[in-house]
Write a structure and sequence with these properties.
Helices cover about 55% and strands about 15% of the residues. By secondary structure, the protein is an alpha+beta fold. The protein starts with a helix and ends with a helix.
């Protein structure tokens, strides 16, 4: 079963649970399991050619999978394509261009794939040596399988969730604020989707959450920003005391 299938199954379970509990927010946790596709590239041309047909789950993994990997230092590049171009091909200008590609600005993975292809194509056109230059190490195309866990924590009101937000696991933040955007037809995170069930009551908070770009944050940094935003809108008296 691939990652999308597991996510959809979990979302159906989540929907059933939400209906049973009348708008309760059901907290989930998750893990990403990296799986080799057996496809690799040694040149920029091979990277472009494989990108044209590789499963969209692989693109998702190389943009977002690194967030859940344990590490002691901040990542130099936010996606694996930029890192390989920098350290495998030693093409610094292209690495910087790929590092600036923000997946949040794309409605779906096919749109993101297109920007990657156009960026690489432009580099191949301006530097013919890029066609044949062999990297010092190959790019290994991977994909992710997401495994979702129910924590059995439920909240009926956003104010109650705000109290718990600073202590949520980084992987829960990933599942609800990042992975939700490809699960939900609306392309929003789980928090804003839940708030929509309360009418316009949390509209200002939703607008503020829509301005948070999770791509250039660590998950712990993102959790802090979410907690601060929730607190500012839902617990202003606590915010003033601090």
């Amino acid at each position: 079963m691939d990652s999308t299938a597991i996510s959809e199954e979990s979302w159906e379970d989540s929907q059933d649970s939400q209906e049973q509990e009348m708008d309760a927010f059901a907290l989930k946790d998750c893990a990403l399991i990296a799986i080799a596709t057996g496809k690799r590239a040694y040149t920029l041309k091979e990277l472009r050619d494989t990108l044209q047909t590789i499963d969209a789950d692989s693109i998702y993994h190389h943009f977002w999978g690194g967030l859940l990997e344990p590490r002691f230092e901040e990542r130099e590049y936010n996606n694996d394509f930029a890192a390989w171009v920098r350290h495998g091909l030693h093409d610094y200008p292209l690495a910087e261009q790929l590092a600036m590609v923000d997946p949040i600005l794309h409605f779906d993975l096919e749109d993101l794939r297109q920007e990657l292809l156009e960026t690489i194509e432009e580099r191949l056109d301006e530097d013919e040596s890029s066609y044949w230059r062999v990297a010092t190490r190959s790019f290994e195309f991977m994909r992710s399988q997401i495994v979702v866990f129910d924590t059995y924590k439920r909240w009926q009101e956003p104010e109650a969730l705000a109290e718990w937000l600073p202590s949520l696991s980084a992987s829960s933040i990933f599942y609800h604020f990042i992975d939700a955007r490809r699960r939900l037809p609306e392309g929003v995170d789980d928090f804003r989707y839940w708030f929509s069930h309360f009418g316009d009551r949390y509209q200002d908070l939703c607008q503020e959450l829509s301005r948070l770009d999770p791509y250039f944050e660590t998950l712990t940094g993102l959790r802090s920003k979410l907690a601060q935003t929730f607190q500012a809108y839902l617990q202003p008296e606590k915010n003033n005391r601090e």
